[in-house]
Specification:
The protein is of the alpha+beta class and 99 residues long. Helices cover 32% and strands 30% of the residues. It is built from two helices and six strands, in the order H-E-E-E-E-E-E-H.
Amino acid sequence: MEITEQERQRMNEIYFALSTKQAQLFHGLYHRVFELSTGFYNGHEHQAPDGNWQMDYYPIPVISVKGYCDVEISPDGISVTTKKKRNDTLDYSFEKLKG
């Protein structure tokens, strides 16, 4: 498979913006009490205009906040996928997140 130089340039523009946003979010979360890991992952989904969910095969940056959530940074925006159960979240003391 080959891509044109124009396609490569557009991909670099998109991924530069995604990587920049990932670095900003990581830096903001790093100075809190969280244990973080980060990487690029594919297999995420987006909601199509018809309302159905479709899988995307291209990788996007994800910041994992251990025990809490994944922050997924896509060209369309940022989403958060929780890792805590509803009742655990309702009972959680959010005091250490202040500041």
